Amino acid sequence: MAERLVVIGTNAAGMTAATNARRQRADLEIVTLEKSDWISYSNCGIPYVVSGTVDDIDDLVVRTPQQQRAEHRIDVRIRHEVTGIDLDARLVEVRALDQDRTIKIGFDLLHLATGATPVRPDLPGIDAPWVRGVQTLADASHLLERVGGDDVRDVVVVGGGYIGLEMAEAFIDRGARKVTLLDAADQPMRTLDPDMSELVTAALRRYGVDVRLGTEVQGFEDGAVVTTDGPVRADLAVLGLGVRPNGTLAEEAGIELGVAGAIHVDRRQRTSAEGVYAAGDCADVFHLVSGRQVHIALGTVANKTGRVAGTNLGGGQASFPGVVGTAITRICEVEIARTGLNEAEAEDAGFPVVTGRIESTTRAGYFPGSAPITVKVVADAVTGRLLGGQLVGSDRAGLRIDTLATAVTAGLTLAEIVDLDLAYAPPMSPVWDPVQVAARKAMKHLPRT
Amino acid sequence: MAERLVVIGTNAAGMTAATNARRQRADLEIVTLEKSDWISYSNCGIPYVVSGTVDDIDDLVVRTPQQQRAEHRIDVRIRHEVTGIDLDARLVEVRALDQDRTIKIGFDLLHLATGATPVRPDLPGIDAPWVRGVQTLADASHLLERVGGDDVRDVVVVGGGYIGLEMAEAFIDRGARKVTLLDAADQPMRTLDPDMSELVTAALRRYGVDVRLGTEVQGFEDGAVVTTDGPVRADLAVLGLGVRPNGTLAEEAGIELGVAGAIHVDRRQRTSAEGVYAAGDCADVFHLVSGRQVHIALGTVANKTGRVAGTNLGGGQASFPGVVGTAITRICEVEIARTGLNEAEAEDAGFPVVTGRIESTTRAGYFPGSAPITVKVVADAVTGRLLGGQLVGSDRAGLRIDTLATAVTAGLTLAEIVDLDLAYAPPMSPVWDPVQVAARKAMKHLPRT
Predict the structure, then answer these.
(1) CATH 2.102.10.10 fits domain A120-239
(2) Quick check: A367 and B299 CB within 8 A?
(3) Are A354 and A360 in contact, with CB atoms under 8 Å apart?
(4) Average per-residue pLDDT in chain A?
(5) In the prediction, which pLDDT does B177 show?
(6) What is the pLDDT of residue B89?
(7) Are A421 and B433 an interchain contact pair (Cβ–Cβ within 8 Å)?
């Protein structure tokens, strides 16, 4: 009898694993189980559907169950929720939601791609229908219904991470009367250093978002978000408090969890249980700079780790070296990007730190369309090795983070970055790329050798 | 008495050296000699002034002699042409063009930043006033006068390198009746592989340029460019045949020349003569991938090598490791970029070669504004090490070349590029960056280990 691979969860990390396992091994039986109505969609695109930038919610769907069946012979079962894993019996217990019954499916190999869930703190009123997270297409659909109507005039976004800020912008774009962003911290976007984050705050305010920092949410009642600074009227509250990995199923089966409750995996995406792999938002991942396991719920990581898991599940050889924590978004006309460790993270990881922060332009200064860009680099104060970088700017400034991400990964020093042969032409960049100007500035703080 | 540094040539490599020498050493007397009317300007910007994209020719001027004197105590003498160097007597012979007399200036240290000159082959009629190169602000000024009038209806661009293509676009933008591009080779942009270059030809033709390949120019007469395929009517012919380093002064003084007649320098920008340095378009430079000295006349290289020369001239310690041959331009609505070695160059340098060429999009496929991008990577067929990359695309596709330039410099393999933690967000990139998709494709041709 053919061996069977069961995959729990069918978004990026699940479906990528399934198709890569199929590529390795034609004879494997592959069953994928999905509790929702959709497989393989771009959750990162939800804010842009809500804002109206992307026309149709269906545009976010990458693959349909029919395609997966036809092209890869993968048995895709939607509305099937896995409720338990029995490692000894090699069985998963599945609730078939439409038939309202529980079935058992045996597996030889198991892949966990259970994803993550938006944080919903245990606050009074948080389960009210006007308090929404942003993750599934069901969330998108609900938010979309509401932006069209007249009833959503005051929107409160709780939490200043990527999704929170993208949603704040989306509701401004949709003509909400008032959009308020609440953050308990004294800066939004805590993956940036405060001196970079303040550029984001300024961009939000210029765009019309009422940004209230150091404001803690205490509950939701009577059409208002209750905060430590008093109530804020709201027709709709959107939660952007980050996500938590869905590790409970694994934990209950006796599989080891790691940082932040994520399923602990090795470089081959193997969990602590024989024949069981995990990838994507539910799993932890190695950070190449800090040398620590971290939890980073991003589509890029899910795709890469899903591919590695799938190759190994199919009998191939693959390993994932790790991430450097690159992230990017475009909010209120500025692009914001980061990679590696920020100043606080670098200090926390034990590095002696120097930084360089500069303002430059995205094109030759005289070229029409040239826009400001601020770049900050963080480096090891002894060796000069680049540890991380952050940037804020418009005019497609953001992709320059990839230069820094590559340099961080390769372990380049500030001096090596200054010497890099980066592209220059007046419509695209200044003769010294902004990332090089920042590196040059940081170099001044290095000890002279 | 103070030591004196004489700098010949005051564009990027000259002025950068002068200011960096000043930074190192306050007591140095610095005299810079410039035969033209201008110092420090962006020749790369000339096509954009001619096209009208940049309003004013003066926008290209980076620094004035007055600024250099006031800010850096540099004695700037324009319209002073150096006619000879006496290394034994430590003197330069200078023609002061306005006074019509020759003077001698002693030096302790000498820096050569004599630049390069557009190639003007010895063809009948090439000295006619309607046949122009594109390099100095005098050229820019002449071309600009002519685009305004009615007399320039038919423009012929000779040579399909960067400058030639930029000028072809510029005259289309200015409403020329007909713009013809002649190239003796069977592709424009010979720094690209033919399969990438054909995308450039297609973009030129879409934009309205009559591209004639394999057509050799034989002369210029009676308002026509005479070619192997017959005469082509022309009110103006623009030469884009590349440049030759200005090495004659150095050669006559007994200084060693290297590849393509460029002044040979070491990592510290020292020439073969004691106390004499050179940098920029007149000098050769080390190519980090081929391991050979090359001649690359680009502003980025001029600035970097000028900085290294200046630091050393001022008594500091600096060295320049080399280039990887990165270049970029935007022509007829597409951006074209390359780095490292192309397929033919890699083979010529003795590498066993694999390539990967893919089409992808600049943003998430569903995101408005997403545009096609074609990426090709060239790698060592044995080790998988990235040797070079080329790309053609719109929507700010070009800057992705910096990711590849950094990867080439760091010696990353295709597998390491696929694993890079590059930035993803729907408005800026697909979840797998196009450069990673290309690397993945090339990997398929590597031997399985």
Answers:
(1) no
(2) no
(3) no
(4) 94
(5) 92
(6) 98
(7) no
Alpha carbon distance B273, B270 (integer Å): 8
Q: Which residues of A touch B45 (CB under 8 A)?
A: 364, 366-367, 426
Domain A4-117+243-313 architecture: 3-Layer(bba) Sandwich (3.50)
Residue A149 — very low, low, confident or very high, per pLDDT cuts 50/70/90?
Answer: low
Query: In a mutagenesis test of the B interface, which of A24, A402, A444 is the best target, namely the one with the most B β-carbons within 10 Å?
Result: A402
Task: pLDDT band for B149, please (50, 70, 90 cuts).
Answer: low
Question: B4-116+244-313 is classed in which CATH architecture?
Answer: 3-Layer(bba) Sandwich (3.50)
Q: How many CA atoms lie within 13 A of B102 on its CB side?
A: 7
The shortest C-alpha distance from A12 to chain B (Å) reads 10
CB contact under 8 A, A420 and B401: no
Note if A282 is an active site residue. Answer: no
Residue of B nearest to A60 (CA): B366
Q: Where are the domains of chain B?
A: 4-116+244-313, 120-239, 335-443
What is the ipTM metric for this complex? 0.95
- Verify whether the Cβ–Cβ distance A366 to B54 is below 8 Å: yes
pLDDT in tens, B157-182: 999 999 999 999 999 998 899 999 99
Taking contacts as CB-CB distances below 8 angstroms, the residues of chain B near A396 are: 396, 399, 428
Nearest-Cα distance to chain B for A76, in Å, is 23
Q: Which tens digit of pLDDT belongs to each residue from B203-253?
A: 999 999 999 999 999 999 989 999 999 999 999 999 999 999 999 999 999
Find, among B291, B274, B348, B268, the residue nearest to B283 by Cα: B268
Rounded Cα distance, A139 and A332, in Å: 22
Could you give the CA distance from residue B146 to residue A245 in angstroms, rounded to a whole number? 66
Q: Which residues of A touch B399 (CB under 8 A)?
A: 396, 399-400, 423, 428-429
Q: DSSP E strands: which ranges in A313-449?
A: 327-331, 334-340, 353-361, 372-380, 386-393
Judge residue B308's burial from the number of C-beta atoms within 10 Å of its C-beta, 0-12 exposed, 13-18 middle, 19 or more buried: buried
Q: Which of A102-106, A167-171, A401-405, B247-251 has the lowest mean pLDDT?
A: A167-171
**Which amino acid is residue A441, in one-letter code?**
K
C-alpha span between A280 and A8 (Å, rounded) = 12
pLDDT at B449 over 60: no
Q: Which of A3, A23, A36, A44 is catalytic?
A: A44
**Between 3.90.1150.180, 3.40.190.80, 3.20.20.380, 3.30.390.30, what CATH number should domain A335-443 receive?**
3.30.390.30
Q: Which residue of B has its CA nearest to A413?
A: B410
| pLDDT average, residue stretch A335-340 | 98
- Cβ within 8 Å, pair A399-B399: yes
How high is the pLDDT of residue A221? Answer: 95
Q: Which one-letter DSSP state was computed for residue B224?
A: E
Whether B2 has a pLDDT exceeding 90, the answer reads no
Residue A449 has pLDDT above 60, yes or no: no
Interface touch B303/A431, C-beta < 8 Å = yes
- Nearest-Cα distance to chain B for A98, in Å, is 31
Q: What is the mean pLDDT of residues B278-293?
A: 98
| Among candidates A45, A403, A424 on the partner chain, residue whose Cβ is nearest the Cβ of B406 | A403
Res. A307: pLDDT tops 60: yes
Distance from CA of A324 to the nearest CA of B (A): 6
Closest residue, chain B, to A436 (C-alpha): B304
**Nearby residues of A399 by Cβ (< 8 Å), 6 or more positions away:** A328, A337, B396, B399, B400, B423, B428, B429
**What rounded mean pLDDT belongs to chain B?**
94
C-beta atoms of B403 and A403 within 8 A: yes
Question: What pLDDT does residue B144 have?
Answer: 84
Q: Give the predicted TM-score (pTM) of the model.
A: 0.96
Closest by alpha carbon to B38, among B125, B161, B129, B139?
Answer: B139
